[in-house]
C-alpha cells in the first residue's frame, strides 16, 4: 500500500482545513487508517484512527470534538476534517495504514506511512 497525504496549508486560528490521504492498491478496506502529527521539536503523536469498515473512530483528547476522520472506499481515500484550529495544531500530519481490525494508537503497529503534509495555524 502506498499512501500520499495532501491538503495541508496555512490557516488562522479558528479556521478549518481538510486533509486527505490517497491509498493505492486493492486492499484499502483491509486496513484501519490513522492520522498522526509531529509538531516542531516534539515527538510524533496519535491524532485519529478509523476502522476498516469506517463505522468506528477514535480520537486523541486534544482534537476530540474538533477533528473528524472519515474514509471513502470508492476513492480509496481517508480524510481528516479539522475545525476550530489552534496554533498548537501546527505540525506535519501523516496518514498511516494498519492491517488490523483493532483501533490502535501505537505508531509502531502501523505498516505503511505517507510522506506527511504541513499544517500551520497562526494566532
Distance between the terminal alpha carbons, to the nearest Å? 37 Å
How many strands, what sense, and barrel or not for the largest sheet?
7 strands, mixed
User: Segments where pLDDT lies below 50 for 5+ residues?
Assistant: none
What is the number of helices? Answer: 0
Approximately how much beta-strand content do the residues carry?
A: over 45%
Query: Level of helix content?
Result: under 10%
Order of helices and strands: EEEEEEEEEEE
Q: Averaged pLDDT, please?
A: 96
| Global morphology | globular
Structural class: mainly beta
| Rg, nearest Å | 13 Å
Q: Strand tally, please?
A: 11
Tag the structure with descriptive keywords:
11 strands, mainly beta, four-stranded antiparallel sheet, seven-stranded mixed sheet, 123 residues, globular
Question: What would your notes on this structure say?
Answer:
With 123 residues, this protein is mainly β. The protein has strands at residues 3-6, 9-12, 17-23, 32-38, 45-50, 57-59, 67-72, 77-82, 91-98, 112-113, 117-122. The chain has no helices and eleven strands. Strands 2, 4, 5, 6, 9, 10 and 11 form a seven-stranded mixed β-sheet that branches.
Task: Give the helix/strand layout.
Layout: E1 3-6, E2 9-12, E3 17-23, E4 32-38, E5 45-50, E6 57-59, E7 67-72, E8 77-82, E9 91-98, E10 112-113, E11 117-122
